[in-house]
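Ticket #4471: structure export looks truncated?
Reporter: QA, pipeline team
Priority: medium

Steps to reproduce: submit the single chain below to the structure queue and open the exported record.
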Amino acid sequence: MVTYRHWLVAASVAIIAVSAHGAIPSWRLIETSDEAPYKLYLDTANLERDGAERQFMTKMVPADPSDPADASSLSSVIVAVKIDCRANTIETRAASMTDQSGDVSDLSGDPPRPIKRGTDDMSLRQLVC
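Actual output as written to the record:
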């Protein structure tokens, strides 16, 4: 079961980067599990390809909870992602989290990790590689 805590952990290992293309983002909804506490989007306008590496932005928006008491105080999380298609790894360097009041918090990230089957990471890999 994916919990709010899992969503925050995923966001906390991400990075924000400015796109080299500088195009206006074009957000494509990515299919996630029905239990996911968020909707995941990929910015298809700013996808960068360099050999086996892909760099792009994702956006996570809290899903409408079945119980209003479970509502998130977050409005969205923008994440810069790097996938190495050959090594089958994903790197999330930092994130920019925006809450319902408009306040923004930046988070730092983690080194590359293997992409596992059945995860949102794998869904992203299948789209960009």
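Status: closed, not a bug. The export was complete when the record was re-opened. Leaving a note from the reviewer for reference: The first strand starts at residue 27 and ends at 30.
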